[in-house]
Amino acid sequence: MTSHKPRVVIIGAGFAGVEAAKKLGKHGVNVLLIDRHNYHTFIPMLYQVATAVLYPHQIVYPLRRLFRGLPTVNFLQADVEKIDFDRQIIYAKNIAIDYNYLVIATGSRSQYLGVTGAEENSLPMRTLTEAIAIRNHILSCFEQAIKVTDEAEINRLLTFVIVGGGATGVELAGSLNELIHSLQKDYPNLNCDRARVIILQSGRLFPSYPEELGSYTEKWLRRHGVKVHLNSKVSKVTPEAVYLEDDTAIFTDTVIWTAGVLAATPQMKQSVNTADKDKIIVEQTLQMCGHKNVYGVGDVSYIDSQELNGVAQEAIQQGETAADNILRQMDGKLPKPFDYFNKGRLAIIGKHAGVGKIGKFALKGFIAWFLWLEVHLLYLPGIRNRLGVLFNWLKYYFCGEGASRIIISTDALMDDRERGRDREERGQGEI
Ligand SMILES: Cc1cc2nc3c(=O)[nH]c(=O)nc-3n(C[C@H](O)[C@H](O)[C@H](O)COP(=O)(O)OP(=O)(O)OC[C@H]3O[C@@H](n4cnc5c(N)ncnc54)[C@H](O)[C@@H]3O)c2cc1C
After folding, report:
1. Which atom of ligand 1 lies at the shortest distance from residue 266's CA?
2. How far is ligand 1, taken at its centre, from the CA of residue 149, in Å?
3. Architecture of the domain defined by 8-110+261-342
4. Any ligand 1 atom below 6 A from CB of 313
5. Which of 79, 284, 311, 326 shows its CA 20 to 30 Å from the CA of 206?
6. 11-50 pLDDT, tens per residue?
7. Distance from C-alpha of 330 to C-alpha of 325, rounded to nearest angstrom
8. What global pTM score does this model have?
């Protein structure tokens, strides 16, 4: 393939990359937006796909459609493998693309914290295909459970362990608990009361929220039947069980890993400064140290002296600032520092229950739950998606069932995983 000559290349069409592309496109700048998927994923709703509340297509939006009204924004579906800052070229399979400005917005990936067997034997939830794989797996456990007679094996199949008690782990635990207890009518010959959700957390729940919200969540989950194990560190995961540091073994076929993230940085030819979790250190202006025409935004980057939590709002605002700064540089002006405006945070625990922190106010219960639904519906791209999600939520709320509980192929997931492994095996080699 011949090389392109775009003015601005953006790698990653998540929250940060899409925001940057929109802003630059509105100013008529030539943009090439690259992502390994041809859709934008609304990650905060992944857990609702994993627990069959929503259909997969309702939380994604085709990128080519998203940018139809912005003719200077082009999209390329490719997996970026390497960046050469000196030559200002990025490499994907069989493609070399040069840039004048580069925005790295590749997000994050799961971190297994050195726990033996965790990567091989647990299910991550960061992409749409991974969320579908979790849904398939949960439903398959029920399908298998009705075929076996051994009591211990039935218990193992109906035990669902979530590692990580941050927002993702809690949201998933609450929703999964609702799913497994609503499956009784589909499996009348199985005692679904035996099914249990266990959440394992090394400290307290919701460590980044005020303590009272953590204990409210803990009580709420326990009251609804979720087994909450706090101060529990996982030491090993096998295909049959998860082991804690105190040698407790929990026999299960399902371990969902939500603890820990690493920056998902493509390989770089030149060494760059990185912080904790492999994040690229950027200046206050979001420019990469030593590379004034390269920006790092969203989950992939780290700004010294700003306390950020790795949430969508931060990524969106950083994408906007990077675009503003590129426009300023094109006009011969100095880039301005990133100034985060914290609009607050919300998380759902289960039906009618949520927690949140908006300014000084800590919210819990119905109001936080309702606000979460409203805010996420507002930010979800696409009218059709919003209407579909609203319909599914109402169906789920009144009838206890959102999306169809179907098991579909996980081949797509294998593609994702193989690609990851492939890249690791190629290691430092020249492309
Ligand atoms: C399960 C889960 C639930 C969450 N819930 C919430 C929530 O409720 N509220 C909230 O505010 N935040 C939430 N977050 C955090 C939020 O999703 C992230 O902070 C946000 O997505 C970061 O945006 P980003 O643009 O940096 O990266 P992402 O949105 O992750 O986008 C990165 C993009 O880069 C692409 N990409 C990566 N590497 C390459 C490559 N080499 N080549 C091509 N493309 C590549 C990916 O395909 C992806 O589209 C959640 C995160 C997770 C995992």
Report:
1. 41
2. 42
3. 3-Layer(bba) Sandwich (3.50)
4. yes
5. 284
6. 999 999 999 999 999 999 999 999 999 999 999 999 999 9
7. 9
8. 0.92
